[in-house]
Amino acid sequence: MTSSKKMLWPASDYVSQSTIDLLESDQAAPPQLAWRRRLNRHANHLTEFNVTFREALKMVKLGVRLWAYIQAEKSQGRTSPIDPFRRELRPSACQGVPVGGMGSGSIGRGYRGEFRRWQLIPGVCEEAPVLANQFSVFISRDQGTKYSSVLYPGQPKELGAIENLALSSWDWNMEGQHSSYHAVFPRAWTIYDGEPDPELKISCRQISPFIPHNYRESCLPSCVFSYTIVNTGESSATVSLLFSWMNSVGGVSHFSGGHFNEYFEEDNGVTGVLLHHKTAKSHPPLTFAIAAQNTSDVYVSVCPCFSLVGNEGEFSARDMWNEIKENGVFNKDHKNSFPISVSRSGHSIASAVAAQVSLQPSEKKTVNFSLAWDSPKVKFLKGRSYYRRYTKFYGFSGKAATRLAHDAITDFQKWEDAILKWQDPILTNEFLPEWYRFTLFNELYYLVAGGTIWTDTERREAFEKVRLTDYSMYNGASNNDKEDQTSEIPSGTVLELDNVSWTNDSSEVVAVISCENVTSLQHNEDQIDEKSERTPLQDKGNENCEKGNEACRTDPEDFSLLNASDDIYLPQSENGNTHTPDLRVCKLSSSDDACTVSGKIRMDRRKFSNNTRDSEPCSSLMSNLLMSNLDDQSTFRNMFPLQQMPHVSYSSDCLILDVKGESHLKEVVLGSIVVNKVEGQEDERRTHSTVKDSEDSEVIRVHEQENEVEDQEDERQEYCTVEESEDSEAIGAREQEDKRQDQVDERQESSTIVEYEANEAIEDNGNEVQEVRGQESCRVSKDRGANEVIGDLEEEDSVGHFLYLEGLEYVMWCTYDVHFYASFALLSLFPRLELCVQQDFSTATLSQNMEKTKFLTDADWGIRKVLGAVPHDLGMHDPWIEVNAYNIHDTSKWKDLNCKFVLQVYRDFVVTQDMDFANKTWPSVCTAMAYMDKFDKDRDGLIENDGFPDQTYDTWTVHGVSAYCGGLWLAALQASASMAELLHHKDIAKSFRFKFNQAKEAYERKLWNGTYFNYDSGVSSNSNSIQADQLAGQMYMYASGLTPLFESEKITSTLRKIFEYNVMKVNGGKYGAINGMHPDGKVDETCMQSREIWTGVTYLLAATMIYAGMKEAAFQTAEGIFHTGWSEEGFGYSFQTPEGWTVNGHYRSLAYMRPLSIWAMQVALDSQDLLHNARCKHTAHSHLFAPAVGFPPKTEALGEDVPSPATEILHSCLRCTHDCVHREV
């Protein structure tokens, strides 16, 4: 096994051994193996690749179309997923370990200590550091010696900017030559070895909650900075550590105005400041919390607010610095003396927390700081919002920042113990190269800093998709518009009016109000009074309860509906801050005045396909809410086509809307009108990967009894349904007969279930397929607060949904051809998230979107999503709904995506042994394979490429049969056959095996040249090139425990050829594996991608070599990525590993998903344990298998011509899948 010359960086080369010994006992010392830098090391600028003149000529038309598309998107207020013309801050080699867990936004941190690369808003990355966000130290010794400095080396060049002039008054005295940074993700150590005080040793340990197989803590938006201070001098010292933070989410957001800060105290002595940030462009607000822990040894003081502008009369950054420098602590009155005022536009505010300790000679003490942020909603550009995963545990009121900061400080040692238990077996394995042991973990930075979003399943849809949009349009709507918005509803109909849910029946009204971000709600007023003062509800609450309302509370944070005619305002706390309340539930008796108001309810009638709109926080509730007991169903009937009128039945506690068949709702009152099976059919509920993997119908029910919630989880949705009262007498015989008929229909057409969503569909005029998504039903209890209700909505084993970007420059969620490589990391560490991603693509595969799309390479028009084609990505501005944000090529014609889907599904099934997952995805697997079969034009069993870059190498043209796509197809056939056998579909398995043997013979005959497989079967100048990635399909056979595609001699010969040419002939193997190499040893310069070294492909190649018994060559191959990207002699791509680089080290696409494939190497090393009892080997003898059984009808249905959008055609295609799946039944 080889090792690099500078492979091991001993900690003693960066930190004196005496300091290491002093810090060793409590994990404050840097680890033996880590990525290291001195703080005074210059962070050189990175150089991006350039296309050659010949490449530019080839792409000039694409460039013009792409530029026009980018401008068109900008005119709509959107960004393009790919924008090569964007030139912002020039990146540098300065990145370190990011802070925070997965999926709740992330903040990068440079190895010199600056906070940068802000990704708190979906798809937005602000690279520049916010210089006010710093740790600083102030030291005072007995003899009068004092030291003060920001803990940052030198003076950053950004200090010269106008907005940072106030910070120039701070002391930037540290040089950094005796300070160093050490990183093993998700932890990092910064050691100040005698800086700024030569007799003081300081260690800062940064810990984020990234814990494999832990689906709770790993999603938390928090981080801890644990400081260990050792006094090595002969005199006592008083040390104050300062943590300052600007009210900003990066960029120039601090100048937008509307922000404010406030002091807080939590349990266990946790004290700090909340920084409430009003985001721009209607994004949900965000609150930061910075805190430290008061102990017997640590005294914490705070400065809630100081100005970075320093206007006369304001407490400025200079004032703050001088006070802490002079006194070591802030004035005790600071927390009360600063009036909480909102920042003005053009002005920025910040806050600071100081922790002071006194140390005798040789004494050591610890100070713990935490950083947390709370932004429960994540909103995408087209208006759809979801709740983040951590809200399952901390609520969605927007008031969780203090608790997050508190729990981080009290729990971080448990995090750290779990991290050590995970990492130590690898870090201490001396049989592995040292560079590999820590680089394996450091490449995981992308699961935090890759724009990741982790949503909570139930709240994602139950409280967002079924809700009305934020109705900012009501403030400015014309009278005519408002007349159009008026409609009557029948008694019992459930409507959710912008966070206000009503159900009206003959006995009572139940209202659920979420007054989040609302200034006021006024009855009988067309306009919301935005200028009104916010006052407590205590008086109104007491007054209403005197009328006999049992459910009313006098708690000022109780936002129960008091009277329909009352004005409702947000209360103020004692310090004048507006509360952000949780959901509250209030039952109003029908005898109350609140239920006898007359009139109608104003609401917005809109097509399903319209996008939602969001308001400013002060105007998000409709102002004129009038409700009466109406029995007339005429208006309700008008919502549906005549032939699909839903059956409406009533019970004592809820309304049941039961829509039969595949109804197509043309127009509906936006609200909670949805359909579902009634109680009694719960046991018949089955998940099928059909158009949207859902049920025939959904129900929203209001239950007044405290019955247990019975959560139901689907592949795409986990339902929060209400347990139906067992003694309900309102369901008549007709409905019981309808239910029995539904069960018969379900058995007959189990794969033709259509899913409905009350926020989105495509208008059905008889010639369009209605696309709708799943909807969760929600129980609302009259006796519970929102947090209690929501806590019951989700089953324990639901982990939500997960998104991450292809790259920070390629802004598309879960790009699937790249996830093929990166997925080994998720599967190894968070397998249930990996299954969720696969289920999302399984659902999308069986969907169709007829929206016209222009593909930029050739200016051809097509549709956004073709039935049966695995999507390229899950979208950009409306993920899960509008998939395929990528529009360079028509990816429905790509030859790798479907094969990669099948291979990943089978591998994940084998590794997890999740039979439910296999059954749910099996119809999509069959559909994906049948769709690909149409590309076998000569019917030799092998698919052909179409003479354009129809795969992940999207500038590298392929002609005829290709080694890459053909190999993936062979592997997919074998995986499909094995999966069919394991699911007891023996005839289908025989069909796939027959085709596999047919295709294998054609593949070897057309591509094998005696040493390796040619790039393709064409006659172009690069057809015999050596492609580094040609055995990607074989790699999945190894990882899935299947029989190799080819004889071992051919595999070994190919890998040796790649190692000799693609690896060792490029700078002696120090750069990784180049994608294409001619057999004469010259780089294939057919296009920019053929001449690039792709980091993720190199790692996957190395994993293949490990499986093939070429371990030494494998580590030497992968070490080229470490040498170029991570080592001190390299180009500085640490914690921002790009997609690839050229032979001169110039990068393309920094911070990219594919390098996560380094975990394929670990899977290969652990393969015996990983696949224990899971291997499923098969012999392949052609005489055992019959010709293809299910392919002809399925292939015909999914032929090259796009299917007619009529529903019956769609169902015909799905029935083919059903026939294929259930042929044995």
Automatic annotation (TrEMBL):
Pfam families: DUF608 (PF04685), Glyco_hydr_116N (PF12215). InterPro entries: 6-hairpin_glycosidase_sf, 6hp_glycosidase-like_sf, GH116_catalytic, GH116_N, Non-lysos_glucosylceramidase. Residues 707-729 have a biased composition (Acidic residues). GO terms for molecular function: beta-glucosidase activity. Residues 732-749 have a biased composition (Basic and acidic residues). PANTHER family: BILE ACID BETA-GLUCOSIDASE-RELATED, NON-LYSOSOMAL GLUCOSYLCERAMIDASE. Residues 800-1161 form the Glycosyl-hydrolase family 116 catalytic region domain. Residues 96-415 form the Glycosyl-hydrolase family 116 N-terminal domain. This is NLGase. GO terms for biological process: carbohydrate metabolic process. SUPFAM superfamilies: Six-hairpin glycosidases. Residues 523-552, 704-752 are annotated as: Disordered. It comes from Ceratopteris richardii (Triangle waterfern). It comes from the Eukaryota.
